[in-house]
Design a protein that fits this description.
Layout lengths: L2 E5 L3 E5 L2 H12 L5 E6 L18 E6 L7 E4 L5 E3 L13 E5 L2 E5 L8 H14 L7 E3 L3
Antiparallel strand pairs: 1-2, 1-3, 3-4, 4-5, 6-9, 7-8
Length: 143
């Protein structure tokens, strides 16, 4: 299946292989600003698509571009935020991380930025390979 990897304003790359996904994620991370990157089936980005009109196929969003922290958000049945059991604890007093999302900022702190960048990428690769919610991590609700 081909996915659309999207970030920022107007950045969209088709991806049907892990190599294409990695190239798009590398490009998004090269902006030197943490970014929300969506990995969407094409139906998600159709001009008339609305999540209220009916169920859309599952998608994934990850944070890229921060050296230490990332997040993975499952947009599908059961929802969830990815949790990496071995990730270091959130630094005491550290501010939330601002990830760019289409020109706006989405802030991720200890309740959402629960994984390392390597684990987020691993989850994205698994999603592109399988089309299913990644099993390489644990899932939890945001708290």
């Amino acid at each position: 299946m081909t996915y659309i990897v999207a970030w920022g304003r107007g950045n969209r790359r088709p991806s049907s292989t892990v190599a294409e996904l990695d190239a798009a994620l590398d490009e998004a991370a090269a902006s030197n600003v943490p970014q929300v990157v969506g990995i969407y089936p094409p139906e998600y980005l159709a001009g008339d698509a609305s999540p209220w009109d009916g169920p859309l196929p599952p998608a994934l969003q990850i944070g890229v571009g921060h050296p230490d922290r990332s997040f993975v958000l499952w947009l599908g049945p059961e929802g969830g935020v990815e949790v990496e059991a071995g990730a270091p604890p959130w630094p005491s007093g550290a501010p939330d991380i601002a990830f760019g999302y289409g020109g706006d900022a989405v802030f991720a702190g200890p309740a959402r930025a629960r994984v390392t960048p390597a684990t987020a990428r691993q989850a994205a690769r698994e999603f592109v390979r399988t089309g299913q919610r990644p099993t390489c991590v644990q899932w939890a609700s945001e708290q």
